[in-house]
Each structure stands twice: as C-alpha cells, then as structure tokens.
Amino acid sequence: MTDFINHLIHEFELPLGNPVLVFSLILFIILLSPILLKRLNIPGIIGLIISGVVIGPHGLNILEKNSAIDLFSTIGLLYIMFIAGLELDMNEFKANRNKSLLFGFCTFIFPLAIGFPVCFYFLNYDFNASFLTASMFATHTLVAYPIVSKLGIVKNQAVAITIGGTILTDTAVLIILAVIMGNTNGNLNQEFWLRLGISLAIFSAIMFLLIPKIAKWFFRKLESEKHSHYIFVLSVVFFAAFLAEVAGVEPIIGAFVAGLALNKLIPHSSALMNRIEFIGNSLFIPFFLISVGMLVDTSVILKGPTALIVAGTLSVVALLGKWVAALITQYTLKYSKVQRQLIFGLSSAHAAATLAVILVGYKANILDENILNGTIILILITCVIASFVTEKAAKQIVIESENDKTDLVVANKLNEEHILLPIASIKKIEKLLEFSILIKDKKSPNPVSILSVVSNDKEAESNIIKTRNKLEEFVRQGSATETKVNAITTIDHNITSGVARISREIMANIIVMGWPVRSGVLDKLIGEKTESILENTDKTVFICDLVKPLVLHKRILVVVPPLAEHENGFDLWVVKIVKLAQELSIPLFLECNPATQKAVEKFSVEMKLNIKMTINIFEDWEDFLVLSRKINEDDLFVLISARKGSASYMNLLEKLPFKLGKHFPDNNKFVIYPQQFDNAYTAQRYEDLSSQPLNIGIETIQKIGKDIGSIFKGK
Length: 715
Hints:
The protein is α/β, with parallel strands linked by helices. It has helices spanning 2-11, 19-38, 44-55, 67-87, 90-95, 97-122, 127-138, 145-150, 157-185, 190-221, 226-247, 251-262, 271-294, 305-333, 337-347, 352-363, 369-402, 408-415, 426-439, 460-479, 495-505, 528-536, 570-584, 594-606, 656-663, 679-685, 698-712; strands at 419-422, 448-455, 485-492, 510-514, 540-545, 555-559, 588-592, 613-617, 635-640, 669-673. A ten-stranded mixed β-sheet has the order 3-2-1-4-5-10-9-6-7-8, sandwiched between helices. It starts with a helix and ends with a helix.
C-alpha cells in the first residue's frame, strides 16, 4: 500500500513527467478553456494562451517546456501558416497582389520607422540592438487566423491582403536578421548574398514547379486511397519547412509556400480539406497557443521599473505601428472601418517570428534580458488584443454580409437548393458525388440526395435492401466533408418516371447525372433515358463526364448559346460554375455572344461573384468544332444546352453532346440544361387555386387567359 501511495505521489510530482498524463492534461485544457471562457464572451484563443501561462514553468510549473511540447508547438505554428496558404483564394490573391504589396510595405516600414527612434533615443540601445528590435515590431503571426477561418470570411479581400502582407514582412524581417547576424560576425560579403539568392531560387523552383507535378501524379494514381492523401500533404508541409530552413529563411515561410503550392489541388469543400482543418484546429494549433502562453514570465513585473518600462514601451510601439499600417492601408484602398479593424486584428499579434528574432539577438549578445522579457510580455498583450479585435470585426463582417439585400430572390433560391443524384452505375457515383458537394451551397439545409430506382418486380424488396447497403458507403463519403447525404431507394416501373416523381417529391432544383453510354445504333445521341428525364422534368440538369479528378484542371471553358440569359435557370448555372471555379482555384473562360456577355457581367456585379472571368465573343455555331483549337487536355469543358421549346434552343444543340464525346474523349465535360420554368413563380401566381371542385367565373377565366398569354410572350 505504501509503495502504491509513493508511486502515485511520484507520478504527480511537479512538473509532470508522465507523457500520458501530460498529454491528457493538455487535451482537457483544449477541451474546457474555450467552453468556460465562451460564457464570458472571451475568444477561445485567449483561454488557451492564459492556460499556458498558468501551467507553464513561470506559472504553477505543472508542465516544463521540453522537446515534446516544442515539437507539437512547431507543428501547430506550421499548420497555421499552411492552412493560411491553402485557404487563400488564389484568383483574389493574384488580382490584389499590388494591394498585398502595399500592405506588406506599410506593415513593415511603419513599425520599423516608429520603433527604431524609440529604441535608439528613448531606451538608449545601440544601432544594431535598436534596428533588430524595431524589425521585430514589423513581424506578426496569424494567431487570430483560426477565428476568421471558423467564421468563414477567409475570402474577404482584407484577409487576403493581410496574409500576403504577413509573408512579405516576415520574410523581409528574417532576411534583415540574417544580415545583422552576418554584420555582427563580419560575414556580410558578396558570398553571403549570392548564397542566399541561389538557395531561395532553388527552394522556389522545387515548391512551385516540382511539388505540384508530384502531387498531381500522386492524387491521380492513388485516387481511392483517401487516408494516403492526408499523409502525403503532411509530408509536403514539413519537407517544405525543412527546405526553407536550409535556404536560410524560417520554416513558417516554407509551410505557407506549401499551402500555395497545393492550393489548387485541395478544394475547400473536399474531404481532404475537412481532415486537414479538423485535425489542425482540434489538436496542433491549440498546442501552439498553449506553448505561447508557457513562454510568458510573469515574474518580470517584479524585477523593477526598467523591465516594466521596456515591456510597456515595446507593447505600445508594436500595436501603434500595426494600427498606423492598417489605417494607411484603409485610406489608400478605400476599405471600410470594419475591414481596417480586421487587418489590424490579424496583423497585430506577435508570437513565433517575433520570438525567433529576439532569441537569436539575445543569444548573440546583441539584445539584453530586459528586451527578452519585455518581448515575452508583448507576445501575451498583443495576442489577447488581436484576438478580441479580430473576433469583433469578423462577426461584424458576417452580420453585414447576411444583411446584404442584393438580389434576395436569387439568394433565397440558392439557399433552398436540393441536389438530386440519380445513379445508373455504382462505379461513377463517387466522382459525381464529389462534384455535387463542391457546387452545393453550404447555407442550404437540404442534403445531397442519391436516388436508386428499383424495377417493380418480384425481387424489388430484396433489391432495395442490397442497393441501400451499397449506398451507405457514399453517405459516409459525404459525412467526411460535413455534407449531409441522403440515400433514397424507390420502386417504379422505369427509371425515368422514378426520377421525375422523386425530384418533385423532394422539390429538387438540380439533377446531376452521369454521361450516357451509347449501347446501340438506335440510341439517341444523348441517351434514351437521359432525354426522357429531360422531357419529364423541368429542373436544371447537369450531365457529367468525369474521366479524371477535378483538381487536375487548369481552367473552365464554358460555351453559351444565344438567348441563354432569358432562361429561368440562367442565374443558377452561372452561380454554380463560378462556385466550382472558386473551389478549384482556376480561371473561368466564357464563349458567348455580346448580349449574353452583358447579362453575365451584370449578374456578376449584382451578386458580387468574386472570380477571374474572361469572356470571348463566339457566334459561329455552325462551325462549333472551331473551339477545339482553344481546348487543352487539362480544361474542363462546359456546354450550356437547352430543351426543345425554350428561348435558347437550336436544332444543332442536339448533336453537340455526341460531338463532345467523340472529339474530346479525354476531357472532363458537362452539358447543362437550365431550368425551363420557374416553379416558385408559377406556384405564387396560382396559390389561390385549390384542389376543390372549381366554381369558375368569367373573371377567373380572364385572369388565367392573361397569365397564359404572358407566359407565351416571355413575361
């Protein structure tokens, strides 16, 4: 009994040494601190940092800063930078690269310009110490990034330019650090600059030329090995961080560049992206935030007025420099006050890069203990302020976007969308489901419904059970992306009537189908079943031929017939194609006539569709295959077609799907049939008609006559 008690006491000796106990304690902190502080309206990030202060070696000394904590902390920091690069809207980033350069310059030069005189004249440090400390003010770490990621505003322009500015200023500061260290050691010569330039060039070539090719090959060859995709991505991240370190810059630069390199290959709504974010936000990033708190030495406050003066001065100068940079950026780029607060919140937190600069300077005897302790207090203060400011600004942006009344009718239609996925082959369903998840509006409460129609015969019941068991795998595939997938099996005399009936029952507005296989000479050009479904439904229908992974495309080429803008489904297919282009981070090219071009441009402005779109004039439909000169093997080809009797219908549209299948067999391609009638409009107009026996007067007959006339007139 005594031995047991002694063993128990030994296990709980401070600091804790048992790795299992240490890990469980950190997990409890990650679990409980955000929940408890949420009641006080305090961001969960602050709870994790404060928890690190309490349990750290300078607090209650429950945990010591050992190699295991350092490892998880490094992984968490690299994860933050990697996700920032991965979630960055590349089209937006390229379109606003000059704005990112402007903010990067402001957030670098103003803290430096304010900090150097303060350190040199007020704190009386020499030139090297003053310049190095002032450069520390220019750095910042995206500690508050998980807040904007969670609230779903990472594609806001203010977020994009802040991320771009972060990389620019941190890279510049770390190069300054290398220069100062070279100057201190007397190694600042031509060889130093040559070595730095060559190593960065090799690093960039590996990351942007070699890694994407390897990733494309890997994802194509091991398309079904989903768990291997995550391991591959992690390997790339840490290898990139190592290469960056070898090249002479900090590993966080490598992790961010890895995110940029893999950006186009990992759609935001994919299962892989969900796994990356889930594990990072649940484990690695909280570990990093706790480790930041463990650095804070609260005893600095008791070391006399000098330490407090230095800590207070550093904190004020750091926050002031970032606020001035955000203010100048706001006025120059004409941003709103809320966007300025968001930029300031994201860029004001000092942590990893700041600590790296100060520790190197301290170990080289350039900086003294007061600067080191003052910087650690600065880290705590700036992280707390940054979290509060970012969360407040991010929530305000979310509220403003929700209150935006722009084209409310279209927005409501999209929010109520319901995608139906009739299956003919189990082999094709996985890619069709992936496509459906990518284009699905995340605000819609409706699931993606997979439909299997079973023939009405003696074996119908047993076939239903077998089909349901097969479809369960795809329900799990949807749950991996946090998308609800509903499996429907129904009995009907034929597939067409089953699809038409279920689409009406669940009020689906989009039907996604696989490309029909022509089994005989007598088959229709687009397949008998497909044409029958088009005739018996008026929904927007996507007919998809997916022969390769969607992430391998470099652009989307859409061909639009004349008068397509007059179809009821025009708004819907434009929004969905734009969403697909955003998910895949690729540009969009439209071939259409001038009238359709004006309609698309007007709609894009009204709905604030943020996409790089190039529109070319195309009117020679008799010579449709002339477009083959513009189509590359890595293009996604989309043809907007039409049902008979619709405004944009042409006889030659019936032959085009066959031509696409014949002349572009290796390309992914879609044929879209827009919705022909507006069911919501029709229901609203005749909602006063009931199913009771009709007692029709002359006025009612006149009203119906006028409405029928308005339909034929196109009103």
